[in-house]
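Data availability (excerpt). The following record was deposited with the supplementary files.
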Amino acid sequence: MVVILVMINGCKKTDYSIGDLKEPSNIVVNTEVVGQDASHPNGDGSGKVKVTISADNALGYKIDYDISNDLDLKYLPSGSTTITYGTEGLHTYTITAVVYGKGGTSSSTTKDVTVRSDFTADPVIVTNLTNDASKTWVVDKSVPGHFGVGPWEVGSIRPQWWSASINEKVACCNCFYTATFTFTKVASSNAYTLQVASPDGAFTKTGALTTLPGIPGAGGEACYGYAGGTSNFSFVRATSGAPVVPTDPGNYSTTETSIMLAGVNTYIGYGSLLKEYEILEITPTYLLLRAQGTETGNAWYLKLKSL
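Predicted structure:
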C-alpha cells in the first residue's frame, strides 16, 4: 500500500503599503552669489550663483532659473547646482523650485536673486553671426560632422559617440536641411532676435524631449509640423566649463560665448536641445555650435553655413 502524505501549509496574505502620501514641506532655496561681499553686493561679475534646495519628505527636485520668459523646469538630481547668468548688467531672476514626494505629490516655492554679469560678447562674434543687421544660416549638409553627439562633460568637447556623414539625413529628414535660422541685431533697442522658418517641419524628437509647440506627444526622431517662430536671444557667458585651449587635441576649443534663446517656440538645427547654444567656432560663413540635449547626458554638435 502506498500512503501519500499531503502537507498543507497555511498561506498568509502580504499587505503592501507605501505609507502616508505626505507632500514635501519646509522647502528652502538657498542662493550664494559668487564673489558677494560688502564691496560687491551682487557678486564678482561672473554671474555665477550656487543654488541648494532642501525640503522635508523630498524624493526629487526640478528647477527653473528664470533665464527665459516661460517656465522651463529642469531635473536637478542632487538638489544643488551652480548656474551662470550671463546676460550683461544687473538683473533680478526668480528661481522656481518644485520638490516631489511619494506618489507624485509635489510642492513648490520661488526665490528672487539679484546678480551682476560683466559679460560682453566679442563684437567680432556679433558681426559674424548677424552681419550687424541680419544674417540667415542653415545646417551644412555638405560637410562631414555637421551633426553629432557625445557626452555632456568637460573632458569631451567633440562628437565622440556619433558623427553624421555628408547628406546623411536627406532621405529620412530633409527638413533638417531646409530650415533656416535668421539672427538679427535690432540696433534701435540693442536687442537680438531669432526667426526660424521650417517649411518642411522641425527635425526633433517628441513629447517631453522638446518644448516646441505643435510637436506630438509620441513618435520617433523625424520631421514634424511646426509653424516657425520668432524669439529674443542674448549672448551669455558659456556655462559648460569647456576650456579655451583643450588639453586633449581631439577636442574643439570654445569662444566662451553662448546664444541663449528666450521662450520655448524657437530652436537652432535640432528641436531636442536646451536653450543655450555654445559657440565653439564662428567665421562670417561657418558656425559650430554645441548644446546640451533634453536627454541631458548628451552634447549635440551642429555645423551651419551662412546664406
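Summary of structural features: The CA atoms of residues 70 and 79 lie 21 Å apart.
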